[in-house]
Design brief:
The chain is mainly alpha-helical and about 150 residues long. The chain contains four helices and three strands. The chain is rod-shaped.
Length: about 150
């Protein structure tokens, strides 16, 4: 069924293109002015394909913008919360916080992703001077630590 619809649409576009070219050729014969742009670039199929391409580009830009401004920060906050919970579990088991994320991760290949945020940039793990607290932070969308868009553990 889908193939039949596709064939009919293609046939209809080819027919419209043919009629369009014939109309332009008729105008060219009447007034002697060549219209190559109108004849070939403003055909119904070219216009439709251009609109579809434009809409696809707009949707791609909107999707990428959504991911970078809404989805990535939420994902990173969720990841940092999970890591912070793992650090707290480490404290409960060992009586101290790990010195860095490498100590927490160890040789576990699944945990290697804990070192990066949704933008695939390194997260910072900072242990307090007295060793009784920690902060895990992501540089956020701008990629710079210490700015307003940083994502920090609670």
């Amino acid at each position: 069924m889908h193939d039949l619809v596709s064939i009919l649409v293609d046939f209809a576009l080819l027919r419209k293109d043919y009629k369009h070219r014939k109309n332009i050729e008729k105008l060219e014969k009447e007034d002697g002015v060549k219209r190559p742009f109108q004849k070939y670039m403003i055909q119904p199929s070219v216009v439709i394909y251009s609109i579809v391409l434009f809409l696809a580009l707009v949707l791609m830009i909107l999707f990428i913008t959504y991911k970078r401004t809404i989805s990535y920060p939420k994902d990173t906050q969720r990841e940092i919360t999970v890591i912070a919970n793992r650090v707290e579990n480490w404290y409960d088991i060992n009586g101290r916080y790990p010195v860095d994320l490498e100590e927490l991760i160890g040789s576990n290949p699944v945990r290697k992703e804990w070192k990066t945020d949704a933008w695939r940039r390194e997260c910072q793990f900072t242990l307090s001077d007295d060793g009784k607290g920690f902060v895990i932070s992501s540089a956020g969308a701008d990629g710079k630590h210490g700015t307003s868009d940083d994502i920090i553990s609670d």
